[in-house]
Structure formats: structure tokens, C-alpha cells
User: Fold this.
Amino acid sequence: MKYILFSLFVLLSVFSLFSCQDDDDTTCTESTWYEDADGDGLGNPAVSQLDCDQPTGYVANDSDSDDTGGDATDPTDSGSANSVDPSLFLTDGTDFTVTLVDCTLSDGTTTKCYEIVTNGMPTDHNMGPWCPDNIADGADAGGIWLEGGEVYDVDGAFIENMATFYNDDKWLMYDANGDIYTTETQDDCANAANPDVGVAYENFCVECLPSYLGDLTSTYTIPMTPVLADSPTQFGGGGRGGSNGPSNRGIAFNGVVFDAPAPTDAILGAYTLAPFDDAGGHINLNAGYHYHAATGVSTEIEQSDGHAPMIGYAMDGYGLYAQLDADGNEPTDLDECRGHTDEIRGYHYHADKPGSNNFINCLAGAYAN
Ligand SMILES: [Zn+2]
Ligand SMILES: [Zn+2]
Assistant:
């Protein structure tokens, strides 16, 4: 098999050599080239391009397990401080890919970006559960809810006590047997998520299942090397000054997006509850599975100096880290975006506390247009 692959490769190389020498020939044969960011002659299997000619910085080899010129888990290695390390993403080459593309950033910088295409299904943890079945159910049967900066287990008792919790007698989300009214179908999920649907879905626990999503994919583009902007960009979409900036905050290593705050006022205003699972995620039919809280369930890259673990990248390519360090402390010098700089990691962000329904407040770096 190895010999066949090698022969195929030689054949392809020879073929593309000939076909590309002739500029009039538009039928050149593309082959796959892998990024060799650290220049060791070994390519990164996670980052590839199709091209007739060998692109600069790319090789045919795809066997480099660490293409950063260093180890991203080793904070004493400055080689990985600032550029995005695509090998940290849990890509599978099919449902989750990372590809280097040309891009222009919001400040006009022409550069390279990583285009992340994913079905948004985490491979490092289960999704759900969200809604418990009965008010006698324990915390294992449900997810969480975020209120007033706190994380609450959505167990049977939480549902039973909602009228008291929200000081509003209109909350009654269960029948005489204690069974909780929960969305049962994709139509239910679509209707209950619409705040204009009216009374039909009042007092429903909204639970949209992965099976409703089909082959939905999402594409995100982040700068390969972050560029600090002159001034921070407020997030766009859903308030915050109507900025043109992205509304997504960042991407977890499993390809799940760190989303804008959940519109909990609208959800509660329609007398529905759309819990998050213990990972801080839930599903809507347009966005797929997405996070509203960093609860420490998705893949984390531990930092050997006791700094908070890394949980992904913000949309400007800067690293996104958990809220708390190994001693349980939040940094005290965070800027308005929730970022700060240290010698090991350069500029980076720390996610807001899980109960805040928030990750970061703005983007300090330029984002891909
Ligand atoms: Zn949501
Ligand atoms: Zn930090």
C-alpha cells in the first residue's frame, strides 16, 4: 500500500510538473500540500492546500505532529506564543477541517487565515441532557441555567420552583404527575425558539436534539497570526452598539463556537426555558450546537506554569483561556475586552465566569472580513 501511495505521489508530481510548465494548459493536476510552518520538512496533516505547484511554506509530507516549532502545551516555549496552532483543533478531515486561505483583516491587513469548517458536533464530550422529564429527577437528568451570574442545575426541583425563583405565578412547567412539558419534535424546537409564537409554547422546556440538524456545517475564519488593532471592536449582532464586528466570540478546540450571550430575557419573556447542557451548550436549528458558558468540559490545554488552561481561540486569533488559574484566581489586570499580556502567551483573553452568559467583551485584534 505504501508503495502504491508513493507511486501515485510520484505520478502526480510528475504530472503536475509537466502540466504546469505549459501556461496555456489549464488542465493541470492539483496535489495536496501540507503546511510546514516550522520549516523542518515535515508537513502538518491538519493544514493543507490543493495546488499544481508547491506553495511556499508547504511540503508533500504530512507527518509532522507538532508543526509550531515548539510545543503549545509548554508555556516556556515562545515559538507558539502568538500564532494560531491549527494542530490543537480536533480535526478529522471530514466533518471538521482547518485550511489556510488568503484573507483581508478588518484593519486592511492582507494575510493568511485559517478557514475552519465544522459540523459543530463535539467529539470530546456528549451533548445534553437539557430538560429533565419529571420534577422528581435529579441533576443528572438536566442541564444548567444561568441567572444573575450564577450557574443553576436544571433538575426537577428547579423546574418545580420556577414560579418562586422568578417570583411569577405564571410559571408552571409540569402536569399533575410532575411530568415536565418538553419540546418533543423538530417543529416544537423551531416554534418554541421563536419568541413570537405566543401562548402555545408557554411553559415549555426547550430541548433541540442533534438529530434535528442534518448535515449543517458552519465556517469560521480567524487570522493565522493575530494583529492588534488600534482600538477594540465591539461585537456585532444583537445589540452592543450595532458594530460591524462578528457576533461570535471564538472557537473551542472541538469546533464548537463560543456564541454571543443567549437572549435569556426573550426566552424567559416567552415563558420558556432553554437550558444549556453541563458543557454550557445547546442547539438551535440555524446555529447548531453552540456554547454560552465556559464550564471546563470541552478540551483544555493545561499550562505548566499554573496559568488558566487554554480553551480555544477568539475570532481575532488570540488565545482564549479559562477564567481561573490553577489556584482558582482570576487575573486582576484584564482590559475592557477581558484580555491581558504575559511573556509566555503574549496577548490573550480569559473567559468570563460560567454564570455570566458571556465569554469576552470585545476584540482587541483585527478580525477576518
Ligand atoms: Zn443559544
Ligand atoms: Zn492570562
Observations:
- Helices lie at 2-21, 156-160, 162-165, 186-192, 264-269.
- Confidence is low (pLDDT under 50) at residues 5-25, 69-80.
- The pocket of zinc ion (ligand 2) is lined by residues 307, 321, 331, 340, 342, 348, 350 (CB under 6 Å).
- The chain has five helices and 20 strands.
